[in-house]
Amino acid sequence: MKYKYLAQCLVLSLILFTSIVASAELKVGFISVEKILREAPQTIEIEKKLTKEFSVRTDKLKGDVKVLKEKEAAFSKEVLTMKDSERDMKEKSLAQVRIEIQRADRELKEDAGIRRNEELATLQDTINKVVTSVAKAEGYDLIVYTGVAYSSEKIDITDKILKSLGKK
Prior knowledge:
The protein is mostly helical.
């Protein structure tokens, strides 16, 4: 008898809770993070900043590659007339230069990737603050990021976030 009464109370409370939740209006918004990261003015600033920051190393690497290609072209023209010892020495020298260029290229890419990630982390913090302020100002209960199977245009607030980011 106690279990029957307890079960009835549980069912009644579930029905009551469900009706309360269903009657409450939930304002939901959706944000496309990819679009924000692609179109935000801060993203363009970050790209310019990183390009400027790594331009000296990039230009030096391009120059080194050009010099290596010139040396390889000269070597291929002269290889038939060289002594074996001279040819071996030049091949080793060119291989060493090639390895150094590959190492410098790898280091440049790693350093640029690290700096890009640092800048994007700062941008993500800014985006989160803007999302929070827009959500509070416009009375949103829930803002959903990318990873959603479907969202209608009426709940997509990505453009509002981009406008707010443009003001920062």
